[in-house]
Amino acid sequence: MAKKIVTDLDVCGKKVLMRLDFNVPMKDGIITDENRIIAALPTIKYVLEKGGKVIAFSHLGKVKEEADLQKRDISPVAKRLSDLLNQPVKFINATRGEELEKAISELKDGEILMFQNTRFEDLNGKKESKNDPELGKYWASLGDLFVNDAFGTAHRAHASNVGIAENIGAENSAVGFLMEKEINFIGKAVDMPERPLVAILGGSKVSDKIGVIENLLIKADKILIGGAMMFTFFRALGKNTGKSLVEEDKIDLAKSLLEKANGKIVLPVDTVVASEFSNDAPHRVVSINEIPDGEMGLDIGPETNKLFASELIGAKTVIWNGPMGVFEMPNYAKGTIGVCESIANLQNAITVIGGGDSAAAAISLGFADKFSHISTGGGASLEYLEGKKLPGIEAISNK
Ligand code: ADP
Ligand code: MG
Asked: What is this structure's pTM?
């Protein structure tokens, strides 16, 4: 069922509660990466231009003790948002109470205010993170409509997303443009893909990705596996993996996944090995049948890159999660670059990246504009790829 989108709501003259993902990295009160603020602008601007009154809010990090109140003060985001919107954003240093309520009642059409970090409510009993019923009800009472555009927290049922949605009235909630894009790309790639659907999985641990592998084994036509997780699969096949990262307790699971896969899983044929986990260590390419005892595999090799490129030919949908090697070190980034290049070369394919490090890899290696969609939520996109229903999305009304 399609979710209501902000454009389905009549926002003019209405108090629009807007849950955004302003969980930006900060150092000493300075925002070090403002991408999430920029990504939120289209939905905010749309509502302001239509004459809505925006009440914006987000969580920022975790709030566990008094000392976090200063560290997790979200007011620098309000300042930056004001610059980017080129209009005042009144900041209320509270998450409830008279000052907030008065400021909301004084908002004029096309004006915006922002209130303090929703997780300040966690200090006394985790009210936000445990979706305290009273809190969701209270926040919902502050507005007429609710727009959720925070995909990064969609896999959590908190008061500021699910709590408000459940209390605002079925007709009055919608997702924003960012959330709409995630649903259109990840949701569609997993549930109604144009075939063939090829999934590329990598990253460090099988244990982080069991759900993703199991779901994609059902949904995808092929699964190409690289990254450190390939070594657990090699052990399942009885191969020597030297000092490579292996999850001993997941070898049996890897075995059963290979059996279930019925030939859908494609494993690397070569790997780049080094004696140490270091960019400066001497390294070389070996066949996966010849990994020496004292060395570890840190990337897929060039033959694997060719193999994966050929498997990708003709793909209509590609889902990529997990780097092929230790891409943070230039000597082990070639496999990940190779996969990015193969995907970039595909014509007429929907190509989607889900996963925090995979997104960071594609962006830092210069491929950001080569994909149809790079997900903005690491944990949320993983759960979406697992085929789970995300509570933050589920709580929004259908069209
Ligand atoms: P994502 O965040 O996209 O889901 P993961 O968190 O699962 O991805 O994995 C990313 C990490 O996996 C990277 O930090 C990368 O260095 C590491 N990695 C990839 N291949 C290897 C390998 N062969 N050995 C050790 N670490 C690896
Ligand atoms: Mg990660």
From this structure: 0.89
